[in-house]
């Protein structure tokens, strides 16, 4: 039995499963199906197989997928700890399991004891962290795994390293703001795009202030990723893991901003749900790419360290 092949298969199954959970969670929120099973958990309206309604079907399907993916992730975790020699793989699978259980617990509490929008927004954030960890785990068993463990020979400054990790943390804040917009049902606070209600700076009240804050935060994320790529291209060679991750992060954030505009323009139309799911898909890919970029910087050599080591010693 080729254990490496099974590790790869289960890791990819966990990643795909977590990605599906993200999309289904967004579908539950957008269709307002969170109460589709009443206040029962894990049963749905007191039944193992609930009566057919669109809301109960969406909510119960989401719960079912979470349960199946959790089992797959548990099997993956056992395989990794028993057979993998990669310490980072054990960290990734442990992180994925922790945040998967945390988001499942938060989801159950949201059903039994309705939570505030601020707490509900964390549910998507925890699911996104679970996906990021499973993505990193899956990448360990691909051609990118070597760069994640030993680097690809790229030398970057300490300042770039710190900037990358700072951007990753900031992107999580942007994600949280987006989830907060959904859970407060504030999407209609800004009509039109790129202007908000026909104004460059609208009146900052109610839903408008929530949506406009998210727009500003997303625009700033796009700006800093543009600046990061311009710096990275001077320190990393084209084709290196660091260069490619920075490039794709920039591409994805541009697509993410445009998809945000698509969501706004689709309000009131049949295509709105599709636009919302596309928005979720892109932010998941962007956060995953930024996570890979951040891990990659840990395996690079700082230019300052190399220069210090290479400098002639004074007698």
Automatic annotation (TrEMBL):
<dbReference type="Pfam" id="PF02628">
    <property type="entry name" value="COX15-CtaA"/>
</dbReference>
<comment type="pathway">
    <text>Porphyrin-containing compound metabolism.</text>
</comment>
<keyword id="KW-1133">Transmembrane helix</keyword>
<feature type="transmembrane region" description="Helical">
    <location>
        <begin position="12"/>
        <end position="29"/>
    </location>
</feature>
<dbReference type="GO" id="GO:0046872">
    <property type="term" value="F:metal ion binding"/>
</dbReference>
<keyword id="KW-0479">Metal-binding</keyword>
<dbReference type="GO" id="GO:0016491">
    <property type="term" value="F:oxidoreductase activity"/>
</dbReference>
<feature type="transmembrane region" description="Helical">
    <location>
        <begin position="91"/>
        <end position="112"/>
    </location>
</feature>
<keyword id="KW-0408">Iron</keyword>
<dbReference type="GO" id="GO:0006784">
    <property type="term" value="P:heme A biosynthetic process"/>
</dbReference>
<keyword id="KW-0812">Transmembrane</keyword>
<keyword id="KW-1003">Cell membrane</keyword>
<dbReference type="InterPro" id="IPR003780">
    <property type="entry name" value="COX15/CtaA_fam"/>
</dbReference>
<dbReference type="GO" id="GO:0016020">
    <property type="term" value="C:membrane"/>
</dbReference>
<feature type="transmembrane region" description="Helical">
    <location>
        <begin position="245"/>
        <end position="265"/>
    </location>
</feature>
<dbReference type="InterPro" id="IPR050450">
    <property type="entry name" value="COX15/CtaA_HemeA_synthase"/>
</dbReference>
<keyword id="KW-0472">Membrane</keyword>
<feature type="transmembrane region" description="Helical">
    <location>
        <begin position="162"/>
        <end position="181"/>
    </location>
</feature>
<feature type="transmembrane region" description="Helical">
    <location>
        <begin position="212"/>
        <end position="233"/>
    </location>
</feature>
<protein>
    <submittedName>
        <fullName>Heme A synthase</fullName>
    </submittedName>
</protein>
<keyword id="KW-0350">Heme biosynthesis</keyword>
<keyword id="KW-1015">Disulfide bond</keyword>
<keyword id="KW-0560">Oxidoreductase</keyword>
<feature type="transmembrane region" description="Helical">
    <location>
        <begin position="271"/>
        <end position="293"/>
    </location>
</feature>
<feature type="transmembrane region" description="Helical">
    <location>
        <begin position="64"/>
        <end position="84"/>
    </location>
</feature>
<feature type="transmembrane region" description="Helical">
    <location>
        <begin position="118"/>
        <end position="141"/>
    </location>
</feature>
């Amino acid at each position: 039995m080729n254990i490496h092949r099974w590790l790869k298969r289960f890791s990819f199954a966990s990643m795909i499963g977590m990605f599906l959970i993200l999309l289904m969670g967004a579908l539950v929120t957008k269709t307002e199906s969170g109460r589709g099973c009443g206040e029962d958990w894990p049963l749905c309206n007191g039944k193992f197989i609930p009566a057919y309604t669109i809301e109960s079907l969406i909510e119960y399907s989401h719960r079912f997928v979470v349960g199946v993916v959790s089992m797959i992730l548990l099997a993956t975790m056992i395989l990794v700890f028993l057979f993998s020699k990669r310490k980072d793989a054990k960290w990734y699978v442990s992180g994925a399991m922790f945040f998967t259980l945390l988001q499942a617990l938060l989801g159950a509490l949201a059903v039994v004891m309705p939570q505030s929008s601020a707490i509900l927004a964390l549910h998507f954030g925890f699911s996104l962290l679970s996906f990021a960890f499973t993505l990193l785990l899956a990448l360990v068993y691909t051609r990118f795994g070597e760069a994640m463990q030993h680097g690809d020979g790229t030398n970057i400054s300490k300042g770039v390293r710190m900037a990358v990790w700072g951007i990753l943390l900031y992107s999580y804040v942007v994600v949280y703001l987006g989830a907060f917009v959904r859970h407060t049902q504030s999407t209609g606070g800004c009509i039109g795009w790129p202007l908000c209600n026909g104004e460059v700076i609208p009146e900052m009240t109610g839903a408008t202030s929530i949506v406009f804050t998210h727009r500003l935060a997303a625009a700033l994320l796009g700006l800093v990723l543009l600046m990061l790529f311009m710096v990275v291209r001077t320190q990393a060679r084209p084709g290196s893991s660091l260069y490619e991750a920075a490039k794709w992060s920039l591409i994805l954030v541009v697509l993410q901003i445009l998809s945000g505009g698509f969501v706004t323009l689709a309000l009131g139309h049949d295509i709105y749900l599709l636009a919302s799911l596309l928005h979720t898909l892109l932010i998941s890919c962007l956060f995953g790419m930024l996570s890979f970029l951040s891990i990659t910087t840990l395996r690079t050599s700082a230019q300052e360290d190399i220069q210090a080591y290479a400098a002639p010693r004074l007698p």
